[in-house]
Amino acid sequence: MEKLISHYGAYLDQTHPLNEYPRPHFVRKSYFSFNGQWDLTIFASGDRNKARYRGKVTVPFAVESLLSGVPRDVYAPGDLLVYERQIALNIPLDAHYFTLHFEGIDYRYKVIFNQKVIGEQQGGYQALRITLPISEIKKTNQLIVEVYDDTFNQYAEKGKQSLNPGGMWYCATSGIYQSVWGEFLPFAPINGFQTTFDFVDEKLAITLDVEPATFPVIISIPRIGHEDILLEVRTAYTEIPFPHPQLWSSAHPHLYEISFRTPFEEVYGYFGIRSCKIGESPFGKAVMINDEAIFLNGVLDQGYWPESGLTPPSDAAILDDLRLIKRLGFNTARVHMKKASPRYLYHADQLGIYVIQDVPAGGRYSFYHQTLLPTLGFKKVDDHKYAKFGRENPDNRANFYHLIETMVKEFSYSPALIIWCPFNEGWGQFDAALAYDLIKKLDPQRLIDTTSGWFDIAKSDFQSEHIYFKKIKFKLRDQRPYLLSEFGGYSYSPEGHTFHPDKMYGYKKFKTQKEWQDALVELYQTQIVPAIGQGLSGAILTQLSDVEEETNGLISYDRKALKVDEVRFRQLMEMLKF
Fold this sequence. Notes:
There is one protein chain. The protein is α/β, with parallel strands linked by helices. It folds into 3 domains: about 30-185, Jelly Rolls (Sandwich); about 190-265; about 275-575, TIM Barrel, CATH 3.20.20.80. The strands form 10 sheets. It has an 8-stranded parallel sheet with strand order 31-29-28-27-26-37-34-33. Strands 4-3-5-11-8-9 form a 6-stranded antiparallel sheet, with no helix packed on it. It starts with 6 loop residues before the first helix and ends in a 5-residue tail after the last helix. The relative contact order is 0.12.
């Protein structure tokens, strides 16, 4: 195994990593980042008499990662992780509350603040917010987070994490792996907002998450070329005439700024206006953005880095990946088996990149049932048989639905996010029709690829398939758009940029960069482009970057070697339109 590191990780500021504001769609002036150096004790098998490590850890990087600073192999599954740090706070005179935010901790944990347990949660992909009265805040405070990662004992949601990484499975993630931060809140704060748009009557609806004592609220929306909107509201829901809006799309990612001022505070945010539905393209059913048929020309984004795993080493690392996607001519990113961060969606909103968001998989994986048989053409399954998918435990199934609900609620603001994907290739799949109904009820403004890959059900907005080992052919079974939600997987390892020089995973392997690129171009020209005229509505290439042994990316794992000729590839991408 090579010690790969991107230039983002090489120049990491360990005292202030990932210090950018973590919630750019809803900004409050009060902000304290608690990323950086923490004390860490690792107790073997949870026994507090057996400390196998006492030292520093850099938050928010998983203990398995290089950037955490924790020596490799001192942590073992089943150990107890105890994080501790002191928090110095200057308390504003008008503060009534203090909220702690934990964006991601894997897996089961409790939070102790000034020797008092203030919160507990399980689930590696759900954020935790804990609001305390100002009376419990001191100038110097002790914050302890105790974490026990038993994800793999109960088939919990884990995405592509594995205790035995190899091939398409990656290193596990344990402990704090997303930002920890805090903010002071005034009396009767604004907790959030949502916008929806009525395209018939051209009205903008704004829903505030507030208490009655918050009012009045003054809403301000600057409008270029139109009169700015400034109004005072005294109800949580209001509709505003909004004629001739500038619509958000990949080609024109227009965002509106919005601010809310109350007697107690002022907060800022943004929103985009766009419609998303299924309609007719010149060649069949397709995704319509603002009533225009859009071919979803996308790439699979696994979102891993060699030095930091699931956590981006910097905000620039996120932004540069998305800029590369756009620069190469793609218009879509499928966030695969991980949860995008709010800053990822913010950059996608700004750049104009459509996002397909997977729900990270749990349950049990079977190579025979969920890879081999479907690849051979056996694609019928009864997903009510929970044992086959590791979903026997009703609490396990309930946790998955809870994850869906939290993700849908958290990401409702993003115009870039247009498609939800609850199940991939049958991994942990159960009651897929119920998952479709739940998401549609919570989020009717977005589309759903219910079962990407193999085990199609009628309750999906797409006929969605993965094709790797054979020529791309498909049959339209009904009136749904046909989405090739994964294809390609061509593998080439650039020398000096490979995680495992002696291991190379992909679906078709090439020895030289030229052979690899020529084959990829030919795949598009001879199979993908002609398929558009046969009803193909979108194609998602595997994948953006190499990850560990998997070397089928357009760029190397360390993001230092771009494998494609940019000009040639962008010219190719220009052919992928209706």
